[in-house]
Design goal:
Mean pLDDT of chain A: 94
Low-confidence stretches of chain A: none
Oligomer: homodimer
Helix content of chain A: 40-55%
Largest sheet of chain A: 4 strands, antiparallel
Number of helices of chain A: 9
Distance between the termini of chain A: 24 Å
Chain lengths: 214, 214
């Protein structure tokens, strides 16, 4: 059996949902690149990655978003704001784009993947718009989870946020016309020394409560 | 700026959705414990962790589940099968249990958190049953994403699976009466040498396609 050294677990214990960021501390571009790569490499159903991430840097846009996020200060104080937006409607290009990427990576013709392509298109076109959105939104949460873990590995603070008005975010970020809807946000940066919640004990159900062995 | 050493990114490139497991290779209990801790430590909305994970070890149960998962071999060949099950209906205990845990961790009286408790109960009781389930299912995907990343760190292979009949899984695993529904599976173990998909290039959209800077 391999020897297990698991800094990741220690880093997961270190992380917390940051309530107050130090607005003076900014991430280096190199760090932002790694966080983006973590999101990019995140698995998704059928490999389709049916989401976009808005990396909102413009201060005025951040200020405009804040009231639509219950006024939470992280929206403007964090070094970076990633708004995860899920695709709202299925169309064949969701699958065609993937197949073209796969074919070119393998040096094959896209038609080699016709069986797979037809299968996935059949599955997805059979979903109602609501089912489709619920499903694309779930995929986003895999990438969100991965972002938070990789952030913790880099000792970068991240606060995930579901408390916001999606319609207003969509309007401000111009998402609707692009076929996406804002799903969840990640505010990213460094904790303020004034954030006393950083020292609160982490509250989790016990492994025994969470798991059932059958 | 800190020096960035990011093995995690390399490990994310290493992982893939394992199509064929080596049925003779089993995880050590110590490894399973770490994966469970990764799930346990995963963030969730309001910290509520409204899911259970069924750690299905019984061979006959695994065999019974296989036909309800399109006959996929990973269900029986993988060392371990985790079935993530989301809570189906809101009740006050969702919040009360958390508040009791938080109060006892802080050496405080649960009544100190009444404001918070009322706020969260108000939010959740205002959801329809469908909204509630869609929301609890999304939370599960954070833990799934985290499991896959921590698995990759340990060079443990994991294949996530959405292709299964949830109702049949619920019946076989006795989930309905417990108030949970099966949401997504993780098959966990070691890749078979015969799994040629392990060598396929990883297909991902470019960072430029996935992100938009505003």
């Amino acid at each position: 059996m391999k020897t297990i050294e698991m800094n990741t677990i220690e880093n997961l214990k270190w992380r917390y949902a940051t309530k107050k960021f130090d607005a003076s501390q900014k991430l280096a571009e190199e760090e932002i690149d790694i966080l983006k790569e973590a999101i990019q490499l995140s698995p998704s159903s059928y490999g389709l990655q049916l989401f976009k991430v808005m990396d909102v840097r413009d201060e005025l846009t951040r200020k405009a978003l804040q009231p639509a996020a219950w006024g939470q200060t992280q929206i403007v104080d964090a070094s970076n704001l990633f708004v995860f937006a899920a695709k709202t409607k299925f169309d064949d290009s969701d699958v065609d784009n993937y197949v073209h990427l796969k074919a070119s990576s393998n040096g094959m013709d896209p038609s080699s993947f016709k069986g797979y392509s037809d299968f996935v298109k059949g599955k997805l076109s059979g979903m109602s718009e609501e089912e489709y959105q619920n499903w694309t939104k779930r995929q986003v949460y895999i990438a969100l989870g991965n972002l938070m873990t990789v952030g913790a590995e880099l000792k970068i603070d991240i606060c995930p946020m579901e408390g916001f008005e999606a319609e207003k975010f969509d309007e401000i970020l111009g998402l609707k016309s692009k076929g996406y809807t804002s799903t969840v946000n990640a505010t990213i940066g460094y904790r303020s020394e004034e954030d006393s919640t950083a020292d609160s004990p982490k509250i989790r159900k016990s492994v025994e409560d969470l798991f059932e062995i059958l």
